[in-house]
Amino acid sequence: MNPELSRRSVIKVGVAATAGLILGCRIRESVAATPPGAADPFAPNAWLRIAPSGEVTIVVAKPDIGTGVRTSLAMVVAEELGVAWESVKVEQAVADAKYGSMMVGGSGSVRGSWRPLREAGATARAMLLAAAAKRWGVEPGSCRTENGVVLNGAGSATFGELAIEAASMPVPTGVALKDPKDFTIVGKRLPRVDNHDVVTGKARYGMDVRIPGMLMAVVARPEAFGGGIASYDEAAARKVPGVREVLKVPSGIAVLADNTYAAMAGREALAVKQDPGPNAAIDSDSIFKQLGESFQPFGDAPEGKVVEAEYAVPYLAHAPMEPMNCTVHIADGKCVIYAPNQAPDAIQRSAAQRTGLDRSAVEVHTTLTGGGFGRRFQTDFVDEAVQIAMAAGKPVQVVWSRDDDMKHDFYRPASRNRLRAVLGSDGKPILWQHQFMQAQAGRGAPSWGREEIWYGIPTAQRMTGGARTPVPTGAWRSVSHSNTGFAIESFVDELAYAAGADPLEYRRSLITDARLMHTLDRVAKLADWKGPKPAKGKGRGVGCFIGYGSYYSMIVDVTHDPDLGIVVNHVYAVVDCGIAINPLGVEAQVFGGVNDGIATALKSAITIKGGAVEQSSYFDFEWLRMSEAPKFTIEVVESRESPGGMGEVSYPPSPAAVANAIFAATGHRLRTLPMNELPE
Amino acid sequence: MAQFTFTINGAKKTVDVPPDMPLLWILRDLVGLTGAKYGCGVGSCGACTVLLGDEAVKSCLISADEVEGKPITTIEGLSSDGSHPLQKAWVETDVPQCGYCQTGQIMAAAALLKAKPKPTDADVDEYLSTNICRCGTYPRIREAIRRAVAEEVEER
């Protein structure tokens, strides 16, 4: 993802008697190495530290929003370093330019870090070997490492014992990386490093940060996009026991109190009167109508069987379990921020700008993060907390209620997708046109381009356009693929039926990518696709996707239950993500993407009325619950290819696979999400 | 404001709060136990689940005056060292993704096992459907509960 990553070179940044070996990846040529002996034991730029005590600390720069990078990225370093996994301590990096991009998104954390982190580990290992060889007067090549110990016929020494000597060794370049067949940590099913803290309640999320003297704050915001607050009763809020401050801030009226409940009660007491502003007439219907008006005539088509269909998806909220929150303490020329986030570096830049402080005076601590899904790329929740802390002159934790979080998101854009294909005599498309109209501010004039598609359809074209609306939009798990995946995988299914073909075999006839083909063949086996036909009221649907460096196929089994409606019973999935660093984590991401896919296929939607979001909580914007969650059979393809991303690949085809299964079960082709009602 | 006394994880605790203050905020902001999480504040998500006696309750819905004199167990009281069979099973099964909802899930599962020491899959689905996991860890929650039950049986 980041071209700079490939240019990273590994340098020694310093050594201190107590610190032992500190290694880091240099991001820019201008970052100078700290001379040996002069370094702070906690010198930045470090991916790993080995203390003379033997303690191995691996620094993870990427926030872990639930994808498991605190485990998987540390595994990569530990693998090449040659230490026992159990001896590794993982440390979350404090934001610093030396880490390069700290942002997590685009399923890029593992892909972007794979090579530099391997090099960081391997370089450290080479220096430990060199130190041992020097000590013993032998060739480094005659030494090997095993679980944090350097071994040679002449003797053995632990990494801790060698740490100080290793730090004075020259930093090798172009170190050899392990052959994947020799991996002992990468590829293992390892439980996450934070599990113990999570299950004992010790894990610290953003909302668990406690700073002496801090006040809890909630903000009354305008409900409608572009709206305002017409009036509020400040005196009433101040009368609530525990309320300390009522402040007008750019985003609304902040109530600061001794505890969260008092702050919330204070906000109630404000009895805010909303000013709906200029967008009061905007609602979901008007937005979808606007999107429909963006469609263009398809133009001429070659001769053959014409298939046309239109698919629509709604706005979606991210609604992570931990609502937005941020803790800020500004004092003594420093701004200290604790935030569950997806972009520590962006937060640092933004806070520096807002406070007028130098970037180096803004300390951003990434806490454990109760879900992200793209929401926490945005810095709005941090910017607001910084403004409140500046106005209050005290440390504050700004807490968003669930309603705040639901109504002030950067939503997955709603879209309408119109597709047309012409089938040749062999049933394959000789024309494929897709008009993709998104409700997204800042869209340019619609224009035709190539459709990025995972099937060999050389004619595939997409027109991307849409309508400007005041509803803020942003990245949501798989971004535009979350829209187009539903349209494309539904439409391919329709073409299969139009061609009189089996939907899985039809896909096979269109696939030209060997890795995707393999996942589809495997999932067909796993689910026994060729086995007995499903009973009445049951159906199976297929979905495929290539993206983020990974290849994915799935089969979904549904039942049309007269009382319960559509029930997803079983999901079979096969993923080829190259080298699976931690198959447990890979499978977890499949659970996540597919369960999101089912929820958004059947239940979840954000709707707009009066220029504002109608939903406010998990009872009107629903995620899947235990009783609705399917059983899973997942296979992770063994591979020697570089790792692909896993955070998003399983989402795009999931809602379509459900729709395709519903069609197989009921004969109803549902083209609008959520599919919460079957036609009579 | 009024004084309320209850037992949290075996220890008596007195707080001076408004009678309608939800237990969740008493635990998190006054007692310093942050294991119970705020997810929705209206009983829709279960992230704040604790035990009142042997029963799972949503601590965002139960107020100070309703818990007066009663015993409360939070995740911190289930065991602080992670030795409870459910906590062990959760770690081994690698249930958590973001992890935010998991203390609530475990407390809901603890209440289930108190009521039904050998729950069926249908029991698990029913009891745990009060708790949302937005990361979709459900298959592993089911597996972890089965694992914890198996371990309990083995130990007897």
Can you offer a commentary on this structure?
The complex is a heterodimer of chains A (680) and B (156). Chain A has 16 helices and 28 strands. By secondary structure, chain A is of the alpha+beta class. A seven-stranded mixed sheet of chain A has the order 11-12-9-18-15-16-17. In chain A, strands 1-2-3-4-5 form a five-stranded mixed sheet. Chain A is globular and about 80 Å long. Residues 1-19 and 23-45 of chain A have low confidence and may be disordered. The model of chain B has no long low-confidence stretch (mean pLDDT 96). Chain B is α+β, with helices and mostly antiparallel strands. Helices cover 42% and strands 16% of the residues of chain B. In chain B, strands 2-1-5-3-4 form a five-stranded mixed sheet, with helices on both faces. In chain B, helix 4 (85-93) packs across helix 7 (138-155). The termini of chain B are far apart.
Please supply descriptive tags for the structure shown above.
heterodimer; A: 680 residues; alpha+beta; seven-stranded mixed beta sheet; five-stranded mixed beta sheet; 16 helices; 28 strands; 28% helix; 25% strand; globular; disordered N terminus; B: 156 residues; 7 helices
Could you give the topology of this structure?
The complex is a heterodimer of chains A (680) and B (156).
Chain A: H1 3-6, E1 9-16, E2 20-26, E3 48-50, E4 56-60, H2 69-81, E5 88-92, H3 109-136, E6 144-146, E7 149-152, E8 155-158, H4 159-167, H5 195-200, E9 215-220, E10 228-231, H6 234-239, E11 243-249, E12 252-257, H7 260-269, E13 273-275, H8 284-293, E14 305-313, E15 325-331, E16 334-339, H9 344-355, E17 362-366, H10 380-392, E18 396-399, H11 402-407, E19 415-423, E20 429-439, E21 447-450, E22 461-467, H12 481-498, H13 503-510, H14 514-526, E23 538-547, E24 550-561, E25 565-576, H15 583-602, E26 608-609, E27 612-613, E28 631-636, H16 654-666
Parallel strand pairs in A: 4-5, 9-18, 16-17, 20-22, 25-28
Antiparallel strand pairs in A: 1-2, 2-3, 3-4, 6-7, 7-8, 9-12, 10-13, 11-12, 14-19, 15-16, 15-18, 19-20, 21-22, 23-24, 24-25, 26-27
Chain B: E1 2-8, E2 11-17, H1 23-31, E3 49-52, E4 55-58, H2 64-67, E5 71-73, H3 75-78, H4 85-93, H5 102-115, H6 121-128, H7 138-155
Helix pairs in contact in B: 4-7, 5-6
